[in-house]
Amino acid sequence: MKNFKQFTITTIPKNFEIISGLLWQLDLNGINETENELIIFIDETKNISLKEIKEILEEAKKNNLIESYQISEDILEDKNWNEEYEKRVNVIEVSDRIVIKPSFKEYQPKENQIVIIIDPKMSFGTGEHQTTKMVLRFLEQYIKKDDFVLDVGTGTGILAIASVFLGAQRAIGIDNDEWCFLNGNENIKMNKVEDKVEIRLSEIHQIEEKDFDVIVANINKNILLEIAEEIKKKIKKTGIVILSGLLISDEIDIVKKYNSLGFDQIAKMQMDEWICLSFKLQN
User: In this structure, what are the phi and psi dihedrals at residue 110, rounded to the nearest 5 degrees?
Assistant: First the structure.
């Protein structure tokens, strides 16, 4: 059985939303936020050290995001993470229309509600985090019948699955993490959308398809800057790009980069310290 390194972090002030966003620049497998702790999980085969995590926390101190922190390291079997997750997970009403629920929770949907079943395991994208909620709300606005959607950094597959539930004809979700590939495929089967959603273990430059109507990427600033040119190659001229995983402080750099490639920002959403931006190519 695969083991995971578990790092337990406490900070003063708590500011877990900001800290988790900074930590996602590492190749994490998952983040679990409790009342007083931030717990991150990393496949022990990955070359990520305690020192790298401390460097990010020190940078947060330098930028006055936190005053102090404590961190400990343990080894955890993956099954224990899932048991802990099941104890705390809730049904999430993202909007009046979209509901996210785990397979082991009961929920009676209201009229016209879309219920998406997501068991995230170690993958990111449960619907709990602000960044995921904002993308889902933008998808409600933008998805049209027969759209072709690309979800970059798909994690659990939640955004690709939501896209087809909202009317898209087809969605491809890509991730470079094998755990996400396996978890995403489990989730598309639970939602019975295997005929419309495909999860691939892939980077965006490896995708042969193009002319996507909608591209979503809920990752982090650095990767969104790195893949900007690839996104432009893949999006249809009339398509919409939705970017999240961003802090308020990231907006200037992201907008500058995408403007330089011929994109216009058309909307912005904010929840706490997080933002989600949408773009369209200039006519």
Answer: -85, 170
